[in-house]
Automatic annotation (TrEMBL):
Pfam families: Aminotran_1_2 (PF00155). Keywords: Aminotransferase, Pyridoxal phosphate, Transferase. It is an enzyme of class 2 (transferase). Belongs to the class-I pyridoxal-phosphate-dependent aminotransferase family. This is Aminotransferase. Its EC number is 2.6.1.-. Its cofactor is pyridoxal 5'-phosphate. Residues 34-392 form the Aminotransferase class I/classII large domain. It comes from the Bacteria. One of its GO terms (molecular function) is transaminase activity. The lineage of its organism: Bacteria, Bacillati, Actinomycetota, Actinomycetes, Micrococcales. The keyword Transferase applies. PANTHER family: ASPARTATE AMINOTRANSFERASE.
Amino acid sequence: MTSARVSQRIGSIAESATLAVDAKAKALKAAGRPVIGFGAGEPDFPTPDYIVEAAVAAARQPRFHRYSPAGGLPELKEAIAAKTKRDSGYEAAASQVLVTNGGKQAVYNTFATLLDPGDEVLLPTPYWTTYPEAIRLAGGVPVEVFAGPEQGYLVTVDQLEAALTERTKILLFVSPSNPTGAVYSPEQTREIGQWAASKGLWVVTDEIYEHLTYDGMPFTSIATATPELGDKVVILNGVAKTYAMTGWRVGWMIGPADVIKAATNLQSHATSNVANISQMAALAAVSGPLDAVQEMKAAFDRRRRTMVKMLSEIDGVNCPTPQGAFYVYPDVRDVLGKEIAGVRPATSAELAALILDKAEVAIVPGEAFGPSGFVRLSYALGDDDLAEGVGRIQELLGTAK
């Protein structure tokens, strides 16, 4: 009997849908097609100068040309602990910080360290495309808990309770959310945190969009809002979104010292230290001012309003106004099945393919984040491209019969 060339574990992983859409858009653009991409969650701003200068200075220092501790430069770990206290109100020692190669490694390290085979993770849905894959890779079982636009894409304690089993070990909590832009209020956050604490669950909270909330909605860290969780909480974060540093690849996890030590052991074999130059850039970012993010946030807010207004003008598209991150997540179920440019898309994947083909606009279908019937568009791109791209979608879907 011939064995498969690729292991079952790795062969079962789906590629990142968001990166796949972005790569396809860039390839079509390189081939001369005027494609506008709403796929990647990536600020269109350059990394602030003072951060770049810190990296240049670090590159000239021979000590950064060598291996450094697998868990992160001590000065960066100290600065991350201080930044977390400043922004989240959460007290952590440097020994509770692990610096990772981007936020994705923090996600994987956390699940690999906490999960045994068969352990279940409550996964509020729509979810970021990487979460279920990282959970499965770690031997866990993602349990989807779906909240639709009717409830603002926010799960309730009753829904979580209904999904709870004796195998449940972790609740994943993400606010502001990718892909929906939904933000839990302080009261909702506390209620969910207290429920998780009462059930003895771990809470893994991804706070990478903490600085991007709108309309006066505050960011609330579930770790701070719910002291009852004790040491059964892990915070995931990074510099990518706040400081326009997606390509620098610096994230981190904060948790109990024993979990961080175990995750550091894992990372010492997987990748060892994050590139020192990137770590020094991240040090400048987290210990510097938040002026740059305020400028970006003002632009994102403007684009958010434009995109919601334009998408809401399309017959059959229901576009809730997001209160965080830089995505909209319209409900397109009423568009499916209608004839558009001679085609009747039955799923949001088919609709996204049609929009790319006919309107030359790249969006990510809901299948990447949970059920079909939705699409995600990032508004982290220039105002002109945004208006042009959504205008093309308006034009195409305006012909739906």
